[in-house]
Every structure is written in structure tokens, then in C-alpha cells.
Amino acid sequence: MNDIGPFPTFDIARAQERVAQILGSRSLWRNGGKFCEHVEKAFADKCGVDRGILTTNGSHALEAAIATIIKPPGSEIIIPALSFIAVANSVLSRGYIPVPVDIDSSSWNLDPLLIEGAITEKTAAILAVHFAGAPCDMTLLKKIVPPGIDIVEDAAQAHFAHHDGKPVGSFGQIGCFSFQAAKTMTCGEGGIVVTNDLVRHDFLEAFINYGRGPTDRGYGHAFHTSNFRMSELQAAVLVDQLERIDEENMVRQLRFDMFMEIMAQRAPAVRLQAPGIGTTRHGHSLVPLLIPENIGSSITQKLISELQKRGWPVRPAYPLLCNTGVLDSCLERRILNQSEVARIRDAEALCSVAADASRRMIVFNHATLYRTRAELDELAGILGEAICSI
Asked: Among the four residues 13, 147, 224, 253, which has the most C-beta atoms within 10 Å?
């Protein structure tokens, strides 16, 4: 396999031409330009859904999606116990209670078989996160979730990954993606919400624009919200990437397969993420590795520090919600009461797989998969030697 440069790649000349065009037209924001509209339509088409709405970032995309769920305050939304804090925060920001459910031990995605036991009369939605680019088992999830409970897909790390031959983001009522700097498509910050639901789409148009609908050029603020609009400059940066994303997904898959072979030889005790049931295309936005159980957290942190010094883009796994300051902060600010916090802590206490993964996992950015074979071999050797020395 030939060595390649870093992805996502940019056609600098074309991007500069677009930026000059935007500046010349003075149409820097979405209502006066064409690039936001182009990206929204093209992205939704590739997802196999009708409509898309660009947002300021992926967290706001999640918040906007959850805002389309009209349920009483204090309703519950089931989330995976191992996920970035934006997942829980987006639920809390809309007045709902996040209920962590454990993850599958091989794909590290939300375990559909545990969802049924977590559903109560207060459950408003399931927030399925496609962790590291591996699709959740959406086919099973949709069979388990009863009518009246929405499915929101967080595909921030899974641009055009496929489950059962169908793009993620198209299974639930609504799907969300991120264009933050570390993602496989990026404009620095940004996001998109996709849906087939016209009512939700029209609501989202107003939600990102101070409650003003798509045809409102005045001050018809229909409800309380804020400004979550993406600019034309950001959308222009996404155009070329959207055209090349399938090629880049294929390259990352080939590189991951190569890295998996190298790891099997040099560091067989380290476990890589398994594709979930029904996965037909992985997004490989991240490369998570599970370190053997006999290695303590302090040694794992030293390993991460050493790898970072050598230039590898690696971090610890996400902490569980109870291991952050979020719940205490919500109590202090009266976002949650004591019983609601206790409900979250009790649910998280049952999530042993997620707790173990949070302690033992190290996570590489997708830029790792664009290194040379020799560099990947060196990385596997470092991991193997570190483990053997314990």
C-alpha cells in the first residue's frame, strides 16, 4: 500500500476561490449564499434522507435534535454510559434526564439488549452513539424500542458509515453529525442535523435562527431559542470533502485492516474495536484500543504520555458521567434535584463494561491511520513492549 498524506484533504486553490467569491458577494451568512444550502442537500442525499440543517457545531446539532422531542421536563433519554460529555450535556440542556445504559463489550456501542430494562414511563428517546465510527446495531434497536419513543442518532464520529447497507443517521427520527477539527470531515467547528420528518425540519429551521422560520426575514420569533447558524465560509470548506468522503472512508478501512494485522503480531494482548453486528462500513473516526486488565491506570497514563511525546495523537477514554463535575454542577444550579442525580448514579453503577473500558481504553485519532506502515509497526512495537514489561 502506498503511503499517503493526512486526510481530510483540501483543494486549497478551490477553497480560496470559493472564499473570494463569498467575500466578493458579501454573502457571508447562510440566508444570502449558496454553499450552506448545497452542503445541506448533498449531505442529506448521501445519508439517504430528505433534509439537512447545518449548525454551529456537533453539540448544537445534538441539542437541536433533542429540541424536536416534545415531552414534559424531567422526561428521560437513554444514552450510552461511554460517550463524550456533549451527549449528556445536550440532554440536560433541554430539560431532560440522561439515563446511562451499558455498552457492548466488543463494539463499545450502546447494548440494545439492555435498553428494554432501562425504559420507563418517563422515557422520551434513545440516543444511539456510533462510537469511533462503528455503527450501533440499529436493526435490533428499532425492534426493541416501542412506538412513541424517538431514536436520535449521534453520528458525530461516523460520517457515512453503514449498518445493513444503509447510512447511519437515516435509521432514527433524526441524526446528527459533527465537523469539529478532529473529525473525518471538518470546517474547524460545525455540525448538521438530518431527518425525513418535514415537521421536525421546519422546527429546526426556526430553532437555529432565533425562532424564525425559513421565509421569515423579519422578527417573527415563534419560540425561545438562540442562534445556531453556520456561515457560508465554513460550508464552503466542506464541499470538496463531501465529494471525497467515500474514498477517504475506504482508505481508513484498508489502513485499519493493516494496523490490525500488525497489532496481532506485535501486541496481541491489546484489543481493537470490533465492528458491530450488521456493520457494512465503518467510519474509523477514532482508533480505540483496550489495554490488558493487569496494567494499572497509572501505567496506562504513562504510556499515553510517552506516545504523545513521540507525536502520536492519543488520549485516555472518555470518563463516565459520575466521574466528571457535571452532576454536582447541575445540583448547584438546580438543573437536577437529588433524586434525579441519584437515578443517574444508580443507572451508571450498573454499567460495568463501560466503567472497565473507561479505565483501560486509550484512543487514537483517525490521523493515526494515515501514518506509514513502518510507523504503525513502530507503534505496535511500543505497545507490545510496554505490556510485556509489566
From this structure: 253
Q: Is the dihedral of CA 80, 86, 91, 92 positive or negative?
A: positive
> φ and ψ at 87, to 5 degrees?
-65, -55
Selection from 42, 307, 66, 283 nearest residue 183 by Cα:
283
Q: How far apart are CA 135 and CA 158, in angstroms?
A: 7
Q: How much is the pLDDT for 11?
A: 76
- Residues 120-145 pLDDT 10s: 999 999 999 999 999 999 999 999 99
Cell numbers that stand for 365 in this block: 485519532
Given a contact cutoff of 8 angstroms between Cβ atoms, the answer to whether 279 and 134 are in contact is yes
pLDDT, mean of residues 162-184: 96
Where is 62: in which H helix or E strand?
helix 58-67
- Cell readout for 131 is 462510537
Handedness of CA 132, 284, 201, 233 (dihedral sign): positive
Q: Residue 171 CA to chain centroid, in angstroms?
A: 15
Please state, rounded to an integer, the average pLDDT across all residues of the chain.
Answer: 92
* Domain ranges (residues) in the chain: 12-240, 244-318+354-388
Our measurement of the distance from residue 194's CA atom to the centroid of its chain's CA atoms, rounded to an integer in Å, reads: 14
Q: Which CATH architecture has domain 244-318+354-388?
A: Alpha-Beta Complex (3.90)
Q: Residues 223-232: what's their mean pLDDT?
A: 94
Element (H, E) at 263: helix 232-266
Looking at residue 61, what is its pLDDT? 98
Asked if 82 and 108 count as a contact pair (C-beta separation under 8 A), the reply is: yes
Question: Where are the strands (E) in 115-210, listed by range?
Answer: 123-129, 150-154, 162-163, 166-167, 174-178, 191-195
Cis peptide before 8 (omega within 30 of 0): yes
| CATH entry, 12-240, from 3.40.640.10, 2.130.10.10, 3.10.20.90, 3.40.1180.10 | 3.40.640.10
For residue 48, the one-letter residue type is: G
pTM for the full predicted model: 0.94
Q: What share of the chain is helix, strand, coil (3-state, %, to 5)?
A: 45, 15, 40
CA distance 127 to 140: 14
